[in-house]
Amino acid sequence: SEDTFNQYYQNALIGVKLGLPMSLKALVTPEHSGLGWYAPVVGTPKQDLGLSAGNPAVYAAARRMNMKYIASNHSVASQWDSNCPNCGVVSSLNPKILLVPRWPNNISYHTTTPSEAVGVFNSIYGPNGSVPYWDHNFDYAEFLDYDTSISIIHILNGTAWPHYMHQGNQRQYAENRSLVTDWVKALLNKYSKYSNLPLLTYKWNVLGE
After folding, report:
1. Which of 39-43, 94-98, 107-111, 112-116 is predicted with the least confidence, judged by mean pLDDT?
2. What is the pTM of this model?
3. Strands (DSSP E) found in 84-199
4. CA-CA distance, 54 to 182, in Å (whole number)?
5. Is the dihedral of CA 162, 23, 107, 104 positive or negative?
């Protein structure tokens, strides 16, 4: 617990010194770790073992930092409330912590270019992938169209939860272009076909409240 607290404290201290626009009330753990979604045996797929199987040190350290919200993964059943689409989930390990769900997409955390993003996707879902689903490998345009077709449903269903991406995805692989900007542009273009209502993205503190 002390090690966990020291990591949170040092990260927050560095962020403050750098003047980063960050919330000191919200926490995002790497790979949503500590929330009961993990591989019981190394090398096997992750399983949803429930919030009670999470790491108590994560919650204890968060409370010592006076944090109130922890980001959770909307694709994991125990990390969102199916009975209340716009509700967070109160932690079973610490009722003073609220889990705030967010949607993943199919752009892997370690990819920085279109070829890398598509390569990882095809290595999983392509005809020769580890979990083959499609009858051909996608190119980048197909990949963006497919992935944003999933995400547009999340937006149009009226819930407040954001989508998330990763730091590496922000690398500019060309002038003024990154995987993040490509994905957002494709999603907004799709959204404009269905609605002219403004899209709102709340900051974490507001979303948590």
Report:
1. 39-43
2. 0.89
3. 89-90, 98-102
4. 35
5. negative
Amino acid letter for position 70: I
Location of structure tokens 């409370």: 63
What single-letter amino acid sits at 180? Answer: V
d(CA 30, CA 110): 13
Instruction: Give helix 179-192 / helix 140-156 axis angle, nearest 10°.
Output: 60
Which is it for strands 98-102 and 89-90: parallel, antiparallel or unpaired? antiparallel
The Cβ of residue 112 has, within 10 Å, a number of other Cβ atoms equal to 19
CB atoms within 10 A of CB 206: 11
Question: 95 exposed, middle or buried (CB, 10 Å; 0-12, 13-18, 19+)?
Answer: exposed
Report d(CA 128, CA 121) in Å as an integer: 11
Encoded tokens for 70: 């922890």
Rounded to whole angstroms, the Cα distance separating 69 from 98 reads 5
Contacts of 179-184 with CB under 8 Å at 24 or more apart are 179/107, 179/111, 179/112, 179/113, 179/114, 179/117, 182/114, 182/144, 183/105, 183/107, 183/144, 183/147, 183/148
Distances from the Cα of 172 to the Cα of 34, 161, 178, angstroms? 31, 26, 5
Angle, to 10 degrees, between the axis of helix 114-125 and the axis of helix 140-156? 80
What radius of gyration do the chain's Cα atoms show? 18
What separation in angstroms does the CA of 151 have from each of 14, 64, 154?
Answer: 33, 35, 5
Question: Which letter does DSSP use for residue 184 in this model?
Answer: H
Mean pLDDT computed over 56-72: 95
Distances from the Cα of 29 to the Cα of 36, 59, 69, angstroms:
12, 11, 11
